[in-house]
Amino acid sequence: MIDRVLTAFNEAIFDTDRERALRVIREAEQEGIPPEDIVFKVVVPSIHIMMKSTSERRTPSIAQHFVAAQIASEVTETMVSRFARSPEIIGRVVIGTSVGDMHGLGKRIVSGCLKALMIEVIDLGLNVPAERFVDEAVAQNADVIGVSSMMVHTARGPSAALGVRKILKDRALERRIKLAVGGAPYRFDHDLYRTVGADAWAEDGIIAGTVISALIKEARQ
Amino acid sequence: MITSMERLRAAVNGTPADRIPVFCNLLDQGAKELGLDLESYYTSGEHVAEAQLRMLRKYGHDNVWSLFYVGKEAELLGCKQILFASEGPPNVLDFVIRTLEDIDALEVPERLEEHPAFTEQTRCFEILRHEIGGTVPICSYISSSMTIPAMLMGMERWLELLLLGPVEKRDLLIAKCHEFFVREVQACRAAGADIIVYANPFGSTDFVPMNIFTSLSLPWIIRDIQAIGPAGVVYYCGMARMNDVIATVREQTGLGAYYVSPLDDLAEAKQMIGTQGLTCGVINDIRLIEWTPDEIRQEVKRMMATGMPGGHFLFGTGVMPYCIPEANIRTMLDAAYEYGQWLH
Ligand code: B12
């Protein structure tokens, strides 16, 4: 039965049909599927299925990522509040766009995917200076800092990822806090993440889930 | 001597020329050229025209721009705040549409020519036309009906409205933006634009899945292009990929010129467009920041070898990032002039 739900949910997300996806979840609940199963056997696998299709030639579009992330985080949030025992959070991420960058879409998609994977996300919003990324990461005891940038100058600038790296180094936090980056310039230059001193980058929100999960593991070692 | 305009015509028609046309899209670099900061640079149409002409003389490429920055379109629709950077393009800071009611209230100016945000562009056009009119193509950048809302409400909220509704508000907003689009194209053409770069990331399946492309993007593309006519219009998805829609767009709109993404397979694009139109091969200009001279030359050579056979080919760049070293711009252009020659 759960397979049927997963297929229906996944198809709805691929068709960017929010209403249908939510209806599938409602019906599953009515059929008595526990909220834990809805999250771990439907929502999380649906993100993994997207991950798989991402490696094929025609990757899912931004619109599909957007709807997937939106619904996944929405559903996870409601379901988690109904869990018998509160679930184990695998890690914590602070995320924001770099200084001068007002483009929040990428960050929002990434956040949605992370939440559905049981990663806690603290969203610092837009136009975030390097110091603030680090201060918040320390205050919130985060494992990973995520910096999103849509333009070349906001990706390469000294107060974007480079600035975060410098502060992490100066404060000897590099082992404890990892740095992930993403956004359009990284998609056109796959080595750029190294140039700006990041530990990793991800092409899209779904891959960000895998990459950031791995960084969390590293940080917690 | 052959002019840039003649080179472009030769490429479109498949007739002989010395070499293929080379478009190099330098915008923010104009400020550097005049020794100004970006904010003061963009206050004046004279600055922009003067810098476009200086860069043209300096580099010898085949196009100039009337475009200041894309956020100008939002200014024409009421945006009052632009965020200027010291080393990159200006961005829209204040969103005109904050609530769904703002969509009802949105007004499209009757006569753009009279709008204060357009007058400096008019001045820019006048100078360009006077100096190089008819010999070097003047390019204007116009966002599609479906793209303009991204600058009025932010991409996040626009995608939400686009995908999750309410549909009536979505359609009303696109319809208003369509009206604006048509007036903007008319105003730019009247002022002297030779080429309209039709910018539409929503015309790429990187952005929307094929079903939304077909049901929503395509009908608006058809309406946009029908309203302005396909002549002199270039299909451009903001550097997002377009190969899997080229055939459909051509069939449905008659558009001939495609500014393909560096992430597209150029050989495949060329094969589809063939001798029916103009394939614009676009270099991944974000890599130009760090590529060595040798890497730049190899890439230009590869693109020419892929795109030139059979003609109907143009070499172009995206919106060149501000921090590309001048030497790399020159290396790219020298390679393009060299490998882009037709050997008779
Ligand atoms: C759509 C688009 C536009 C639209 C909408 C922009 C907007 N968001 O408001 C319009 C047409 C309005 C536009 C305008 C401009 N654009 Co534009 N645009 C694009 C385009 C096609 C896609 C960008 C986008 O929104 N993607 C959608 C989001 C969801 O994707 P994303 O940010 O990449 O995020 C994903 C991943 O990167 C990753 N990710 C993102 N963040 C993070 C963070 C972490 C930690 C991780 C792990 C992963 C991750 O996951 C996300 C989800 O899948 C790109 C080219 C391209 N193909 O990417 C150019 C591009 C970004 N634009 C560019 C430019 C220059 C501009 C302008 C500044 C042009 C100008 N001179 O005026 C204007 C600015 C307008 C303004 N805001 O005032 C350049 C930037 C490069 C540069 N030269 O600096 C690009 C790369 C095009 C190019 N190559 O020339 N643009």
Structure characterization notes:
The complex is a heterodimer of chains A (221) and B (344). Chain A has eleven helices and five strands, in the order ααααβαβαβααβααβα. By secondary structure, chain A is of the alpha/beta class. A five-stranded parallel beta sheet of chain A has the order 2-1-3-4-5, with helices on both faces. In chain A, helix 1 (2-14) runs antiparallel to helix 2 (18-30), helix 1 (2-14) crosses helix 3 (35-54) and helix 3 (35-54) packs antiparallel against helix 4 (62-80). Chain A is globular and about 55 Å long. Chain B is α/β, with parallel strands linked by helices. In chain B, 49% of the residues lie in helices and 10% in strands. In chain B, helix 14 packs parallel to helix 15 (326-339). The longest helix of chain B has 25 residues, at 167-191. Chain A binds chain B through residues 14-16, 18, 58-64, 66-67, 70, 100-105, 108, 151-154, 156-157, 185, 187-189, 192, 195, and chain B through 83, 85, 87-89, 91-93, 154-156, 159-160, 162-164, 205-209, 211-212, 239, 244, 262-263, 284, 286-287, 289-290, 321-323. Cobalamin (B12) sits between chains A (62, 65, 103, 105-107, 109-110, 146-148, 150-152, 180-185, 187, 201-202, 204-205, 208, 211) and B (27, 69-71, 88-89, 91-92, 143, 147, 150-151, 155, 199, 201, 238-240, 318-319, 321).
